Structure formats: C-alpha cells, structure tokens
Amino acid sequence: MPNSILFIIPCGRLALSGVFRVMDYIPFLEKEGIHCTVVNYSSPVLYRWLYLKGWANSFWNRKNHSIYLDRLYSLVKMFYILLIARRFDIVYIEKVTPPAWWVNLLKRVNDQIIFDFDDAVFIQSPKRSDHIIKHSHKVVAGSHFNLDYSLSINRDTILLPTPVPIHLYPKSTKLPDRQKTGINIGWVGTTGNIKYLSLLEEPFARLAKSFPGLLQFTIIGHIKQFEQLKLQYPSIKLQLKPYIDPQFIFEHLSEFDIGVMPLFDGDWERGKCASKALFYMAAHVPVVCSGVGENNHVIQDGVNGYLANTEDEWVSKLTSLIENQELRIRLRAAGRKTVEKKYSTEVCYKTLRQKVLLKT
C-alpha cells in the first residue's frame, strides 16, 4: 500500500465526481495510515460566483473573461502540483484532462499516475484524454462504455462504479400516506442535464390526464429554467429545490415516490455512470431509467427497477408504480439491496484497494 496520495479533483464539493470518487474514500485511506492531500484543478470560488450565484450571463462571463481566470487558476495549480508531486507515492487525477505537455512533465517528476474518469471525457477532449490514459500507470473507468474505450489504449484499466455513501442513507424509511398527498416523481441533476427532461414531456402529459391532480414533479438542482419548465409541464404540479450537498440529500430524495433518470441514447450518455439511479435506490425510491449505457448494467428490468426506451414504456411503467404501492415497496427494497451489495462506498473502496492501490 502507498504511504501517501496526491489527489487532483475538478472543483471541491461542487463537482460531485470528486466527492464520491475521491473525498468519500479518504476516511478509509486515512484509517490505513495513508496520508492524503487534495488539490482542486478549477476554482470553487469562481464556479460558485459564476454559476451558483447567477453571474453566468453577466457581461464579464459573456466576454469569456471567466474562462481566462479559470485557465490561469488551473495553470497555477498545475505548476504547484509539479513542485509537490515528488513527495507522494501516487498522483491520482480524477476526471480532469490536463494538457499533454504537463502530463509529460508530471511523469518525469512522478510516474505513478492514476487517471480516474466517470464521464466520457474522451468525447469532449479526445487528444488530452488519450494522452493521459496512455501515459498513466493505471486507469480507473466508471462505466463499461468508458472501460472499453480505455482498454483500447491502456490495458491496465479497471472498472470501478461511482459509489454511494450508503451510511448516510437510513436502512429503512416510512411510507407516507399517498392517498392524502399524491405521488411525487423526482429528479436530481444539474443545469447541463436538464435537457434530458424533454423526454418526459409527453409521458407526463398523458399521465396527468390519467391521474388528474395526483402527480407532482420535484426537481433538485441549480436549475435556472424554472419558468421554462413550468411551460413544459403545464398539467402537473412542479416543485424546484436548489442544489443540496450530498451529505444532506437523503431526506429530500426520500420524499420521492418514484425517481426518474431519462437519457438520450448517445455516446456521451453511454459513458455516464448510473449515479442518479443509485442515489434513488439507496434512498428506498423505486426507479424508472432510460435503457442507456450503465443503466443496463445496474437495473434488472422489473426486478430492482424499470428501464424505459419509448414514450409508451415510460407511461406504462410509471403507471404501474403510481397505481401499485406493493410494487413500489418491492422495487425499492430490491434497489436498496443492489446498492448495499455492489455500489456502496465501502464495497467500492475494497475494489480500489485490491485492484489499484495494492498493485501500484
């Protein structure tokens, strides 16, 4: 086992991949006596100012000055990492794709580089991604689609799903009386993923006619398009909640009766981890997900959740869950067991320890 690891993550707790795939492992690593240092590649302060505080459309940002600030921040951090990297046994880079010249310099300083990615970053930055995959000592891929791509470049690649901190999610939750409150369908995500909700417009319109006044759609995330969404879903009650830190999200997810994860069927979506579905499942929420990418590896249709690929399938499977509380109880229990068995932070850390850290 290494004695020390330098972690490079995208943007503190604001980029959830860095939270679940790095920061949640640190207590396990420190328990084994491994010293961990975490460095942000991008500025959390800048991100919060521009996006979370609503300055993304300001004059400053429209003129792309924010991009230059962010690049300057990253450049400073890259040189800082080069100065300190020699002190660590491993340099663990999560998701970010630095320029090739920097990777080459880093390799001269410390060649024990591990590259971890949970999105299909090779679509957005193909040259940078291929270079860091090729020159890493080991690669950790978050989905089967990403695994296949990485293996074509670096055979020393393993599959490691994005874990769920299931210790934050109680083992059981009380079922509310939905005869009084109606059915709450929920989605959690970011502004960049709001486009996928377009797949639910027609299914929700049809469901609203079948269940008038019964349905509510709750959206959790920093979503700026609330007025637009109200126009998209005129026949269903819409509730918007701001971004919630993963440490405190359980109580909000547990208010869902059904969790949804619609996705387009494209390469970017095939590279995604099924994290959204796993969050719902950990919170005892039955799921309906698009049958795309990693969802097909997590969800057994009708056993621990539902997969839907057409408008009719979305309507029929949501209808089944809306009408049948016993079905919701069965699927939510099976979903929770799936997360406990395969996708908890503790389970995934064992894989990281045995297949990556012990062999580095």
Index terms:
360 residues; alpha/beta; six-stranded parallel beta sheet; 12 strands; globular
Concise structural overview:
This protein is of the alpha/beta class. 45% of the residues lie in helices and 16% in strands.
Q: Could you tell me the number of beta strands?
A: 12
Strand content: 15-25%
Sketch the major β-sheet: 6 strands, parallel
- Helical stretch tally: 19
Helical residue percent band: 40-55%
Structural shape: globular
Structural class: alpha/beta
Radius of gyration: 21 Å
Could you name the ranges where pLDDT drops below 50 across 5 or more consecutive residues? Answer: 53-63
Query: What is the quaternary state of this protein?
Result: single chain
Span between termini: 8 Å
Strand line-up across the major sheet: 2-1-3-4-5-6
Overall mean pLDDT stands at: 90
